[in-house]
Amino acid sequence: MLAMTAITLETLREKLKEWKGCDLQKTANPVLGEGNPQATIMFIGEAPGQKEDEQGRPFVGAAGQFLDELLSSIGLSRADVYISNVVKYRPPENRDPLPIEKEQCEPWLMLEIALIQPRVIVPLGKHALGNFFTKLSISTAHGQAQKLTDAVTIFPIFHPAAALHNGGLRQTLYDDFTALKKFLTESNIPIARSPLAADR
């Protein structure tokens, strides 16, 4: 892949369109993340669904609408954060992504993380959490900050789609977002870096 100095989110998006390293690209459209390139908070889901595949954008279906609600509940919007997925193509029939598919797409996610340089990564659901902590369970770790490095904290939360299938999880998600806001406030983490800070 390209040297980091030559990469922007736009060039990454163009390169992904040309990439043939995952069989899912034979049946689906590439969906890279989107949002504020200066964001300090990055949300990572599992894989695109039907609406995402059609529009080429992450979290634009029903789960995305709920994510917008959750962000709004703590005074944030999509424009404040960066949102992506572990897998960059829709698996057939919205099935869970296979380990090989996650592995093949991982370099793209790592490049996004390197470009955004988030201070807080919010894995939405078990597939995203497994990218950072293989032994942690989303059901026990959700809503709790997990230190990844001195500079980066992982803050796992259930995937918004889970609450669409299980209404009992809706309040849990709202509570976890409230906990996320509390963590950001107590840690003095701003919503976005200044462009000058990113250049240094």
Walk me through the structure.
The protein is an alpha/beta fold and 200 residues long. It has a single domain, classed as 3-Layer(aba) Sandwich (Uracil-DNA Glycosylase, subunit E), CATH 3.40.470. It contains nine helices and six strands, in the order αββααβαβααββααα. It has helices at residues 9-18, 50-55, 62-73, 99-116, 126-129, 138-141, 160-165, 170-186, 195-199, and strands at residues 34-35, 41-45, 82-85, 120-123, 146-147, 153-154. Strands 1-3-2-4-6-5 form a six-stranded mixed β-sheet. The longest helix has 18 residues, at 99-116. The model is unreliable at 196-200 (pLDDT under 50).
The CATH homologous superfamily is named Uracil-DNA glycosylase-like domain
Strand and helix order: HEEHHEHEHHEEHHH
CATH class: Alpha Beta
CATH architecture: 3-Layer(aba) Sandwich
- What are the low-pLDDT stretches, counting only 5+ consecutive residues below 50? 196-200
Tell me the CATH topology.
Uracil-DNA Glycosylase, subunit E
Strand-pairing-aware structural class: alpha/beta
Coarse morphology: globular
Number of strands: 6
Number of H- or I-type helical stretches: 9
Which strands sit side by side, in order, in the main sheet? Answer: 1-3-2-4-6-5
Roughly what percent helix? 40-55%
The total number of structural domains is: 1
Rg, alpha carbons: 16 Å
> What is the residue-averaged pLDDT?
93
